[in-house]
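go over my protein:
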Amino acid sequence: MRFRFHAFAFRPAFLLGLAALLTALVVQSGELGSSDTQHRLQATHSFWTAQPAVLPQEYPEFGLNGRRGRIYGWYGMGQSLLMLPSDIVGTYLERLPVFADYQGNDPSVREIVVSVTTNVLVCVLAILVCFRFLRLLNFSVAQTMAGALGLLFGTTFLHYTQNTMENNFIMLLTLTGFCFQYEWLRTGRRRALFYGSLALGASLLTRLTTALNLVAAGVFLLLVLLIEKAGWRNIQARLRAYLKIAAPCYVFFFAIDRVYQYYRFGSVFNTYLSIYGAQQKRLDPSLPANFPWSTPWHVGLLGPLITPEKSIFLFDPLVVLSLLLAALLWKRLRPEMRAWLVATALLVAGHVVFYARYVVWSGDEAWGDRYVSTAVELLAMMAIPLLLRHRRDLRPPWWRAGLLLIGVSIAFQLASLAFWFPLEIYQMKTLGHPTFVIGLRFENIAAVALGKVQAWGLRNSWTWDDPWQRLRSTTPYFLPYLLDKNPDVPRWLAHTLVVTWFGLVAGLLAVLTAIQRTCRANLPRRAT
């Protein structure tokens, strides 16, 4: 057994995949995380059952009038398709006699199955793709493993591993697209370009604005060639080869999205936003003429950057480190790194500008600005690998500042898991604006730990009057702890789940220790 353990220690991908698996299992709440995902799951259910795409009582709060007098959700089908296999399995499991006494509980058995299986799968695949991509970028094994763990523990990717929104799925598809398209650029393998284009194209089915991600991937490849001075003829030849494979993939998935749009709303030349705006203005004539693009420019542009409630620099501090390293090391960076930093920075700016005038530019009830989180994670992902690669090129104060930013970012991401994510959003309705959300989260953690919630004025009527919402707001937001407070769950089962949870945490710590040893064993004698 000892020999096998040491053998595995030299398999970085295996260890990273195992770390991602254990992490995803540990952080699960068993809930879907938001009403958006609940609506998408309802659409999933409608694909294979007689259930409607939108429950009648949801309208007009949610849903749009569509063809044949039916109400449809306004989201794309991507995440709904992702959850389809788990929804089928969860539905049949829920009907088993053993769960008869649990019917009507929140979360349901079906939701637990869907959220856990979906989140775990996406998390593991994304971390493995991250590892593969960083190796393609010629980072060492140690730098690559640290970078993949940085994505997992140091960005909002961790939060969305717990909360089943579409963000991590988009991250997986986008990162896969970048990875395989870059492999094509370096090797000429057309199959790699095909796989990468399929992944990027598939993201259009989840959120149509991921078209910006497709553009960013092309810009990244083009910048690599330009910085390396590949020559205009070579660039033209590469462009023709790229479009010959990538363009049909993108058109294929865009056509599927348009067919889905026509099936629901009878048109292929608009998006749900124009329909949403028109129908909402009929329901409420007082809405501005340009609704839902009614947010002032300065609010939507500055909000994701400087507000204490949604700033990308607060929710993803590693992006600060990426920008800092870019400024300090620009002339020392390899061409592909310069291209990556420029392409992903432009991608962040593109998403910020696109959503700037949207009525809920902030992503509404979400931890940070979920509309720009994927782009921010892509930019932040390179911070730790670059810091390690160029350690000897940095003065000690900058090195220590980098380590401090890494520690702060990990602490912020871990804090985001502690309680139900909208807790501070509901508290702000009582406490007012602006509010430093992350600081309030640490205050909530301390208040619950010390029994000072009421004394510190953190109770709020928005959640406290509902027993289940109060439970979410004061109980560690992990499935075993939530079920332990549920009287319909047998005590022996609840206690077994709590013990199992601690076992998973112990296993995760052991794997992280093995990863640390592997990194040290693979550290180069010289900085590369």
